[in-house]
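A protein record pairs a chain with a discrete description of its three-dimensional fold. The following entry can be read in just this way:
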Amino acid sequence: MATLGVFARRIRERGRQVEEGVNEIVKKTAIVADREVVLSTPVDTGRARSNWLLSLGGPSTSEIEAYAQGKGGSSGTANANAAMAQAQAAVQARRPEQDVYISNNVPYIGRLNDGWSAQAPAGFVQAAVQRAAAAIRNMRVFRRGD
């Protein structure tokens, strides 16, 4: 027969598992959302794509130069890979109580999202977020049987 102490330990352990599971889902969700928005961003010089910055605790106010220089979209893959690597590295430090932000501070990101570039439709940011939401709907905190 289990004692109250054993029961309390089991409940605390289950609570810890839930917290860890939620933290992992938040991290995975952030990575999927970041990937979708980065890859959806039209590329000329790569600056807009490079400036999707994932931060913890508050939105980034930074604006950076493109990771790779090029014209006409030639640096698109290199900038996408670098931007997604930045997000991956940043999100790994997330603690359960921290909010995750994905920001882009280039002055023309709003115009790009309004359809300024023929490379991406208007609303590409919202569409990327919707695709990310659809991709994460099947994530589970616990394995079956737990």
About this structure: Residues 142-146 have pLDDT under 50 and may be disordered.
